């Protein structure tokens, strides 16, 4: 049985300047409680999908839908309230502040009285963050900082988690830990839409893989099927794909 569509792009055109179009009438979807992996060569539009979905770019045409409702042009604050959270590429912490203060800033939109309970939920999921709660964020390892970024996003109990290149700067062991965490979130009901350069590892934890080429959907396959495709490297690095299955 096919899972319910929770995110939909319908012929979306978007870019960074009027003369620079990245998404070319892109149509795709992400399904509830699954990890959907976006892959493709540099410039294919993977990160642009996440930024458009999170309101950082407004589509020039087409429609972006969340649970069937159009969300084109909504602010990031509105999208957070809807249940969409974004963990962007690189490190996005306040390094001079403590782990606790970073978490509190992540929950600044929550009603008074709820924040500490939400922080306790995150700390229960991330024991290492609990151990470092009063340390400066800049003193944490790369893996701990990534856990803190994800934990901060989870404070708002998002239904959809967008994550861009979670493995950057991490050792293979820490990459496995982050992927295991994302798999656990999806198994618990959170929809994950991910961009990740470490394609073979990410496919092992994902449900579906969407291959983008020049801002269009070139292929839609179960991740397990694509993992065994001898043309995987070609698809990732770029090359003509005949059909979008």
State the gist of this model.
This protein is of the alpha/beta class. The chain has ten helices and ten strands.
Distance between the termini: 17 Å
Largest sheet: 6 strands, mixed
Please work out how many helical segments DSSP would assign. Answer: 10
Poorly predicted residue ranges: 239-245
Numbering strands along the chain, what is their spatial order in the largest sheet? 6-7-8-3-9-10
What do we call the CATH homologous superfamily of the largest domain?
Answer: P-loop containing nucleotide triphosphate hydrolases
Radius of gyration: 18 Å
What sort of overall outline do the alpha carbons produce when their principal axes are compared?
globular
CATH topology of the largest domain: Rossmann fold
Number of domains: 2
Please tag this protein with its features.
4-stranded antiparallel sheet; Rossmann fold; alpha/beta; globular; 10 helices; 2 domains; about 240 residues; 6-stranded mixed sheet; disordered C terminus
Structural commentary:
This protein is of the alpha/beta class. The chain folds into two domains: 5-83 and 158-237, Rossmann fold; 93-142 and 150-156, no CATH class. Helix content is 35%, strand content 27%. A six-stranded mixed β-sheet has the order 6-7-8-3-9-10, with helices on both faces. A four-stranded antiparallel β-sheet has the order 2-1-4-5, with helices on one face. The radius of gyration is 18 Å and the shape is globular. 38% of the residues are buried.
């Amino acid at each position: 049985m096919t899972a319910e569509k929770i995110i939909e792009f319908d012929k979306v055109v978007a870019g960074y300047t009027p003369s620079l179009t990245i998404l070319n009438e892109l149509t795709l979807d992400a399904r509830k409680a699954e990890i959907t992996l976006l892959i493709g060569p540099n410039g294919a539009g993977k990160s642009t999908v996440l930024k458009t979905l999170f309101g950082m770019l407004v589509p020039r045409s087409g429609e972006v839908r969340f649970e069937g409702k159009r969300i084109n042009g909504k602010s990031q604050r509105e999208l957070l309230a809807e249940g969409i959270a974004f963990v962007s590429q690189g490190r996005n912490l306040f390094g001079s502040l403590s782990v606790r203060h970073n978490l509190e800033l992540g929950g600044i939109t929550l009603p008074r009285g709820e924040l500490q309970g939400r922080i306790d939920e995150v700390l229960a999921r991330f024991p290492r963050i609990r151990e470092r709660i009063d340390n400066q964020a800049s003193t944490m390892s790369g893996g701990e900082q990534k856990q803190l970024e994800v934990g901060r996003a989870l404070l708002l109990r998002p239904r959809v988690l967008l994550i861009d290149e979670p493995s950057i700067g991490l050792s293979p062991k820490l990459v496995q830990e982050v992927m295991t965490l994302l798999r656990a979130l999806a198994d618990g009901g959170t929809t994950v839409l991910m961009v990740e350069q470490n394609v073979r590892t990410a496919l092992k934890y994902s449900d579906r893989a969407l291959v983008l080429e020049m801002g269009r959907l070139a292929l839609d396959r179960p991740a397990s099927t694509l993992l065994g495709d001898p043309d995987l490297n070609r698809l990732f690095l770029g090359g003509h794909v005949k059909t979008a299955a």
